[in-house]
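We emphasize that the prediction below concerns an isolated chain of 75 residues; any contacts that depend on oligomerization or on bound cofactors are therefore not represented. The input was used exactly as deposited, without trimming of termini.
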Amino acid sequence: MEMSDILIHVNETIEDVERFRLEESLRDVEGVVAPRFSPGHDHLMFVAYDPDSTSAAAILGQVRDRGYGAQIVAM
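Result of the prediction step, given as a token string:
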């Protein structure tokens, strides 16, 4: 399995519980392996995923579907 990573910037300030819930909801997306917010950078979330199963655009769409403004950050 080939893995890719994306960095997503979430515009809103999200409390710890909501960050956890967002990470958990992304774990339910087929192909997403490891969504995690960056410690000390509460607006940045790294997501490791299998590009054969999902896409960066689909993952970003899931974050936006939860009501957050977000964009992919070029690395």
